[in-house]
Amino acid sequence: MDNYWRISDFAKQVNKHTNTVDGWFKNLEDKKIHFINRTDNGEKVYDQTDLDIALYIKDKRDNKWSLDAIFDDLHNYFNLRAAPSDYETNSTSVPYVIDIEAIKKEILTAAEQIAVTQTEEIKSYYKELISQLPKSKTRQEEREERIELLLLQKKVERALTQEAKDKWNQKPESERFKRVSFFRKEEDTFKREEFIKDYINEHFESRLKDSLDTNK
């Protein structure tokens, strides 16, 4: 069964605006290349051949072809429809009336649709942008973060202190003790504390960074 469409439904099949599709076929008729069938009351009716032609024009336009180049190429692919015998009579006896109010309404509707679409796109863009921004912290959150950092620093310092003590205890006795009399030796506490302090200073920054990365 053959398919037939009025211009509004036909344009939907092509997925183009009504004015665009109507303009293509008016141009084809003006150039006497291809003509659209009409009902008894003069209304244009589009069939499958017209749809194939429209889809071909759409494809070539998407590929940046000019309309003149497309129109010149149509006869290579389609059985184009010649003008009816009374076409000249119909075109001269029935004046073409431009419905200005209808055009205005269509333009306003299209503009509103574009505005709504753009508004939603802008909203979506800024929502995405805002979601990527770092969130501002409350004073309570900042205070808690400072406390957590201090606690972590103390934890790292305690761990390094214990490590330093263990390494100190592994040193030979000759390095850890000092003679206080001919018969007695005692641990060199000053030297021990200096060793622990130097060990902490040497490893504190890298160990704290590792701990912060682990807690993320």
Write the layout of secondary structure elements.
Layout: H1 7-14, H2 18-30, E1 37-38, E2 44-45, H3 48-62, H4 67-73, H5 87-93, H6 100-132, H7 139-169, H8 173-176, E3 177-179, E4 185-187, H9 189-215
Antiparallel strand pairs: 1-2, 3-4
Helix pairs in contact: 1-2, 7-9
List key phrases describing it.
9 helices; 4 strands; about 220 residues; two-stranded antiparallel sheet; two-stranded antiparallel ribbon; mainly alpha
How would you describe this structure to a colleague?
With 216 residues, this protein is mainly alpha-helical. Helices cover 67% and strands 5% of the residues. The protein contains 9 helices and 4 strands; from the N terminus they run ααββααααααββα. The strands form 2 sheets. Strands 1-2 form a two-stranded antiparallel ribbon. Strands 3-4 form a two-stranded antiparallel ribbon. Strand 3 and strand 4 form a beta hairpin. The longest helix is centred in the middle third of the chain and has 33 residues, at 100-132. The protein is rod-shaped. The relative contact order is 0.06. Residues 89-97 have low confidence and may be disordered.
